[in-house]
Amino acid sequence: MIASMLVVIISFIVLLSVFASFVPHIHHAWLDKGSRSISLRYLLSNVICSTEHLLFVFFYTINLPVETGYWTHHPRNALDWVNFVQVVGVWTLWNLLLGLNLYHNPTSRLRKASTVVTYLGFLMVSIAPVIADAVSDIFCPPHHPSCPEQERDPIALFQGLHAVVLLPFLTTIPLVVGIIKQARMLLQTQSLPGLKLQTAAFLLSALSWVPRVSVPWDLYLDGGHPVILVINAWYHMVGPNTPKLSIEIEPTSPQMALDNPSGFIVTIRRAVDDCDKPCIFRWNFLQDGWGPSGFMLFQRTPDGLKRVEGAPKPSPPQTYKLTGYEVETEELLPGQTLRRNIGHPYPFWDHMVAGERYELFWPGAQYALWAWGTLREHWGQEIGASSGLPPVIIPGGPCCSFTCVEVEERLESNEPDDPPVEKEERIPGTPCISVILEGPSTISRREKICLTVKITHEGLTNGEHEASSCAATKPIIIHSYPFSGDNFRLQRRCQGQWKTYFDDERNPGWMIVDEPDVEVHVADSPFFCCLEPGETLVKHRSLGYLDLHPEAVIGDTYRYRYWGGCVDWWVWGDREEHAGTVVKLPCWLNDHVVDPVDNDGRPVIVVPSSNSVEFTVVD
Predict the structure, then answer these.
(1) Which of 89, 210, 483, 558 has its CA 20 to 30 A from that of 474?
(2) What is the architecture, at CATH level 2, of domain 423-618?
(3) What are the start and end residues of each CATH 2.60.40.2970 domain in the chain?
(4) Average pLDDT over residues 150-177
(5) Which of 255, 257, 294, 246 is nearest to 401 (CA)?
């Protein structure tokens, strides 16, 4: 308590000394009817710099009365108001000094006019919008007057633009230019003691500013972060540039059915011309897409757009500890993108009406969960507000239209399918492998069915593309990837024809694709199997009602079939013989062998398609 009072008292003394340091200049300009020894550009540079400072102090002290930032405490205390008075006072005194010199300085009218126009123009794009936001609801959505500050997206983007882009330049470049101009001026009078006193006053002001400004010290000093980040955070959002990100939104279907809604595909793109450093970025479709700062929904009416009210999902966290690769945090290089299916408009779903047309709009938002570098570099570390980095801004503007309907009109997919592999495509002299499927004749809405896949090593392929005797054939080790899901087909019987059903809305998930290839021992890897001549490998696949066509009804007939494939890697011999044999797979493992690329010169094993298992939908 005593320490706080002491800081307040010292701050008032410093405040008065700073104000007093302007008195000789103003007195000189008043008595001498201006001063030819002070450059107008120098004065204008200082006024612009002080105006930029005023923008932030005014915004955090007045516009955000219930929020705490890097400038103010919560609740406001005496130190916050001392800072506010100092910045406003210095800004006022610089304006007074500029006004006196503009009025009395015998420079040309054109130079005076250009100075006034430049300053007024800067006021209109700096402090004027902040004051307008404080005294009115001009930045609120038209349908939501008197909204809280958090919903005033234009002013948030405006403040972010100044914080991330303009503040570092407007507080350095104009001053440097002004000092250069001032250094070229001829001095009429000079007072070395006065200069020393003024220097001391501003030095004390700078030193006393540090304990007066609110900075989350504990997040840095207690969190194991380098102390240099404290300086970065204190100099409000100044530091390395943030990644340049943009967002795109498109519906998966122009119609959204209330009975079976489709979703929206969001693409977040990093600019091609951005710096070449990698960055990591976390984006959660529920918290970021449908949270308080996420997408807005508007209904088209004869009177224009009407905002649809909803119940947004919780806000995303401001800090997050990375423990490894995960689906919501991705690395982005310039030009790269991340894509998310954010589903249907969860917050607005209960307020949507069939037959109406809607606009989904991205208002723009700031994100704390990002960092420069790769995921591996940040494993075990915390990203977000505690890192001291400025938030990433994804500008608003993108939107898309869709119509809400009761039931979506579905069209049969005309996507072509490759023909099944025939046994005539087998290569003579290679192992002969066949596949047989077994399964039930019905499928229920309530239970999944189990299909048995039997993969048999039948011997050696002869000239007739059939299997010869197994007696003289050796065992083989094969890569089992060709017997994965992509080589199976589900077909629906429609008007007497079999049509392959492609699930366009199936989410393939995600995978890491930029890690090094993985060395695998073929003798003990689950991605390889050993088959003796005549031996059968048995696998199982399951199908449920949700795997069928969306319009499946009782009585529909389907069939399931292995479509055929090629074993890209195989070798003669058993596990004992090849205990030391190593190949390389991609880092996500379930794919073709990448080394050796040509199976050491051996031809591939062509596996023809299997029989079909037909089943009917029952209740």
Answers:
(1) 483
(2) Sandwich (2.60)
(3) 423-618
(4) 72
(5) 255
